[in-house]
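Q: Protein A?
A:
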Amino acid sequence: METRRLRLLLELSRRGSMREVADAMHVTTSTVSQQLAVLAKEAGAALIEPEGRRVRLTPAGIRLAAHAVTILAAVDAARLDLDPGATPSGNVRVAGFATAVRRSLLPAAAVLAADHPEVRLLIHEHEPFEAFDLLAADAVDLALTYDYNLAPAAFDATLETIPLWSAPWGLAVPAGAPGTRFADFAAADWIVNSRNTADEEVVRTVASLEGVEARVAHRADSLDLVEDLIVAGLGVGLLPAGRPVAPGVRLLPLGTPVSLRSYAVVRRGRAAWPPLALVLRLLRAAPDG
């Protein structure tokens, strides 16, 4: 199979329209159709089927497009590997949660700007489930995700996962509230993440171990907003132990240790692509890595 035809199939899986593929690849729509027909013969299976006025990939087409991601990445890496003097260059698309972007990616971006200006980071803030969807769709090259020790993530076999750092979390309560233990706040309203269920799972797990039930009342994505709600006396929640808390918030240790664990995640076989390999190398080498 020619890699050029695989690239057309991959673009069709992303864009959903032969006309959009033709525009992106600077060819005619007829050329796209003809080349995909040849690819179908080479594969021995129908790869596309009509859907109204458009087309969609068949199950076989979807599977081949998934293989194309790895195949094309390997070909790109091999081409550059044959030239030892080649300089990594290109855009690396990253989806990550805010803390990892600040803690891991921005220092890497500073090094790239100084030493490797040919590599450009395109950064988008997303929660893990959103980042995984973008990674699966080949809309990003790298996902910075997290889980908790009490709510471990299950990573797909098609992904390569690199642990980066971990951080303990504590119980954040109003500064003047009586009590020093989790159970002392059994009657409090709880504040959990609005876009990810992992911290709610952790809260309920810790509550179960403490013999109480956590009553979730508020959901907020921003840690700053969580603090504002706590200061207003509207509830309690979990916050990173290493992060300075706002005035009016007190952070208590948890009897059951809770740690957030950060990961760099790429599609398997893609990590050898030189620009991405360079970014991963910087992330691993960071002091917190």
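Q: Protein B?
A:
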Amino acid sequence: MENFIQTINGLVWGIPMLTLLLGTGIFLTIGLRFLSVTKLPFAFGQLFKKPDKNDEGDVTPFGALMTALSSTIGTGNIAGVAAAITIGGPGAVFWMWMTAIVGTATKYSEGVLAVKYREIDADGRHVGGPMYYIKNGMGKKWLWLGGLFATLGILASWGTGASIQANSIADALSSSYGISPLISATVLAVGAAAVILGGIKRIASVASRLVPFMAASYLVGGLLVIGFNVSHVPEAFGAIFRGAFGIGSAGTGISIGLMMLAMQKGVARGIFSNEAGQGSAPIAHAAAKNHDPVDQGLVAMLGTIIDTLIVCSITALVILTSGVLDQSCLPTAETAASFLANGQPAGCDTGAPLTSQAFGAVLTPTVGGIPLGEHIVVISLTIFAFTTILGWSYYGERCCEFLFGEKSILPFRLSWILVTFAGAAALMFEGQVKNIVNLFWLVADTLTGLMAAPNLVALVVLSPIVFKLTRDHFNGLKKGAPVSYVADDQEPPAE
């Protein structure tokens, strides 16, 4: 099974997908005239702007961003960064950064289209996302592409949003506290049921409280660790840049295999972490109480900045400066081909346990016999991953509704609770199934890539709409005139 999934993963994350993902981001960045960089201060101002009483939507722009961040700040930031470094080498971090930098324009465009082409369902909810902007923006002949995205979205939500998150929580709790995966599975399933059965408003309410607090706590702990190891920071950056371009540790010669491995795992983990281009976050932003697509697009792009350029970078520097990495488990110019074909050697630490070791190696005061740093990682991971389970349940639910209608929502929510339970409980078979954690990550990576492809095609096709809405918005602001916006029901979709 692992060999089969490894083969599929290699095909999905080959040169075509890397080109499509990075190429789309670069194209949108240039087309938007680097708005995702120049308008960052303005975007933060929009984040805390109070919605107009006449704005349609289900949650505030801040609540929509927190829902989106609840699904992005999770295992990708803690376990995913560790996996990227150990499987793709330190150079993978550079390609995570590149994915995030061009991903800000991608995420902005997703947010714009999400609000522009959203609909109101039979129950009065504002629904949107790639399947809707494909349907309403690209016309009926592209409806199959929207259906394909929604189908892959359901599968990816079960894999990326439920099972891998629950599995990572169970792995961390078992490694640090000896808690049985069966107990973790039961608690997670019950907790998820208590929130997701209440819908988007309850999810946004919980996320708005948990995400900012835990993100701040994790960042403070990470900065402390980096501060204690500040003398190793230049060395860490050196390893990142050498590995990114396939330069061996000796600094001589370039290995194309090592560079491709770093790029493949860095981009895959980058999109898994910040979801720019994947098409999941616009599903949350479509529910925002914001009548203007550009305003919400600006809010949406902040998610990539916060998630990857800040939180993931902290995790990466903690790991690379702590001295806990087993060098024999890292790819080299000589072993890159083997890593590409077979993955990481068995017995090497990856995921959350490695990040826990890195924190624990520096923040050594013990609480209950366990280093303080390890407590920080495990608690952060548990809450981050749990909020990811909540956010992704909404994404999968909207995809399911698009395909099967409102009556499918409750069955989907029940299936979500079961998949969450199964993802954590699967760790019970760790002794019988070799590298079961790596297997879960391979599946998640593969589904992430498959889900992104239809969305990236839609972003390219609809980019003229994004560029026009953006120009009109900022030209109106320069003239001091209110920005006009034509509602979707007044403008027929293209055929």
